[in-house]
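Work package 3, deliverable 3.1, input record:
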Amino acid sequence: MTLLKLDELQVSYKLPGRGTLRAVDGVSFELEPRQVLGLVGESGCGKSTLARAVCGLEAASAGTIEFNGRPIGKLGLRKRDPGLMRIQMVFQNPFASLNPRRTIGSQIEDGLRVNPDRDAWNVADLLEHVELDAESRTRYPHQFSGGQRQRVAIARAIAAGPELLIGDEPIASLDASLQARIAILMRKLAVETGAALLFISHDLSVVRVIADDVAVMSAGRIVERGPVEQVWSQPQDPYTQRLLAAIPVVDGLGVLPG
Amino acid sequence: MTDILAVQTRRKGRLRISKQLRTPLAITGGAIVVFWLLIALFAQWIRPFDPLAQDFMRLQPPSAEHWFGTDQVGRDVLSRVITGAQVSIPLALMLVVFAMLIGSLLGAIAGYFGKAIDEVIMRIADLVFAFPTIILAMVIAAALGPSLTNAVIAMLIVSWPAYARVTRSLVLGARNAEYVIAGRLLGNGPFTSLRKDILPNVLSPVVVLATLDVGTAILLLSGLSFLGLGAIPPTPDWGAMVADGVQNFSSWWIAVFPGLAILTVVLAFNFLGDALRDALDPRSQEAVQGRAL
């Protein structure tokens, strides 16, 4: 059974003055449970808008999104449908995604509170799984580095027991040395907890390491999708070919970070 | 350099604030505020005479017995100034607290929900803003009839919009912060989101505004009493006492001492508010929290 199904999804933004910008322009794809899909494309191609729409943060101007057969509409000011809370997101900027006035422990507990399986985790377990000290639960976000904060954000998302974990460029604002580690950690936790992972990035080499499937997005459309190795070795679409050619090469095989 | 300093002190949590409040002005302000609070608290025991008893010679200048002299009906001015602290300071504090609660709640609702609710609340606020504060307060107080309660109600009506505006703009900025959205994705409804994620992060500027406003409130309250719209005559209110002094201009002590009391309290709260504003400066905080990155 399909976990997430997008059907001809369009999302438009009103531009100041007249006119609209169609950020997502007719995207259809399906995501199976436990699948790890990398979504790549250049800045401004609509990746983040797609993620926000799946979370209900943007309204679809046409087309539908279904999660476990349940349609996703705009969240607006309502409380989120408990069924849709099985979708959780890790944001790009770990300096903005944690409340500066609350301890990380209490923020992770917010996640645990909506987990249908109440005894699945506790805060200490979660902190250990994201490779942080269990004692750090009483500390505030400003006491952590960027990479550590992103681990906390991942722990909070996992705490909610997601069936679909979305990473919206979760590694883009981290040190190069950390990017692959955080990405691999997300994959590991998603696989362990049986969640599917939609990993958005513009870094193809990281996506290659962690994803099963990769979808390439350009100008609001998905131009190519397939298993990672296939897209990597035999890119069909000219845009994918250009994207792959743009990866800096030092040894003729492409660079694997980390 | 200052950034490093800020980070180090920030790590110690609450210490950070007290360290930044350790400026000469802040200490002076704090000391004067504490002084007046103690006077208000222990007025019964400190004052040498009954503030209402008309037992003495009229219009005596300051002397060893009557440090601040006596007024036009033979009451001891020092006792009346001390008792006046019990009237002005608690009322001003209460007023500011209520104005802050009402104003920031309405402002937060306007900012968070937007659209029609925002329009209604903020247009009412604009309506109040359109009149000069003291004039509107006078009109309302006059319409309600002179009494301290009515003066406070009048001042409440004119002072909540400032808090509503500030809180609204702060909430507008914080509403789309990623941690607020993350909270919404974890099932926070709008009110939980406001209470848990937004308000704790926007309240410090509002508290600064409130501290600065205590001085204004005392001044406004004294102003209303001076005009005969606040305290009713025997009540020893500073503003009303200044008004008495104006009618007996040659007896300068009647107006000067309550006037000095108003001056010192207002100045002290302004010093304190200024220092608090510097300590909670959102820019220095932002640098500390790394949002600038």
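Residues 176-193 of chain A form the longest helix (18 residues).
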